[in-house]
Write a structure and sequence with these properties.
With 253 residues, this protein is mainly alpha-helical. 61% of the residues lie in helices and 8% in strands.
Length: 253
């Protein structure tokens, strides 16, 4: 319910005591396992913690693909397949923002899936939508978010809309300031040169580097969920650290 009401931090607090051992219980109820990771992933996405969102969605999508045979021809097969489609769509959204190199296993799942959104009355390959997202296509972002997101309710229990304007503003900010571009091209670059490349001020760039360090390097919070589930998933892809010294950005791989 906290997720439906848009109380994402509260929802994460509720699952903060869940450990990897607890998820064994969820795995006995396949839908609960899938729903837990989907909702947690969505909460992180809405809090702009894209690495966490992508890793959780990736993990449970691969888990579902491995064990879906056990729900084949059962009453829950169709609903679980639909939820898994939402998980993969959510992964696509988070992946575009967090920008790490994806696992072959998850890209194969995206390639094999077709979805039908409210905006289109026919099935379209999810991989095609991911490619449009990578080109920062706004209509695809809104369309895929509408497909992936759970319903949102008011305090009175009435259905309402998610803030799509905020979502588009995030995309615009990401396009203008995609620090991952620097990480992929350089191992050492002057702060001024990098700022001109990204068309931002040096102060803004240094602030983004500090934020990047927090998202990529720092340990997650000291909670059971974070230690048991998130920390093993949040492996650093591409580089180990970004250090600024004497006006030079050093990217240590």
């Amino acid at each position: 319910m906290a997720v439906l009401l848009g109380r994402y931090q509260q929802a994460l607090e509720l699952i903060s005591v869940v450990s990897l051992e607890h998820t064994v219980v969820f795995s006995k109820a396949f839908g609960s396992q899938l729903s837990l990771f989907y909702n947690a992933s969505f909460c992180y996405f809405m809090q702009e913690k894209y690495l966490e969102a992508a890793k959780l969605a990736e993990t449970v999508a691969i888990f579902y693909d491995k064990y879906k045979k056990f729900v084949a021809r059962t009453i829950s097969e169709r609903s679980l397949a639909k939820l898994n489609s939402k998980v993969l769509a959510l992964w696509c959204l988070a992946h575009v923002f967090e920008g790490n190199e994806p696992l072959d296993a998850i890209t194969d799942l995206v390639k094999d899936l077709s979805i039908k959104t409210k905006e289109r009355n026919y099935n379209e390959n999810l991989e095609d939508k991911l490619e449009k997202l990578k080109q920062f296509d706004e209509s695809t972002l809104v369309e895929l978010f509408g497909f992936a997101a759970p319903k949102k309710l008011t305090a009175d229990g009435l259905e309402t809309q998610h803030d799509r304007k905020s979502l588009l503003e995030r995309l615009e900010s990401h396009v203008k300031f995609n620090f991952n571009t620097i990480l992929k091209l350089y191992t050492r670059i002057e702060v001024g040169k990098a700022a001109r490349f990204l068309k931002v001020t040096e102060a803004d760039l240094l602030a983004r580097i500090e934020d990047y360090g927090k998202r990529k390097i720092e340990l997650v919070e000291d909670k059971v969920w974070d230690k048991s589930i998130l920390k093993p998933l949040l492996k650093i892809d591409g580089c180990d650290s970004v250090v600024v010294q004497d006006g030079i950005i050093n990217i240590q791989r």
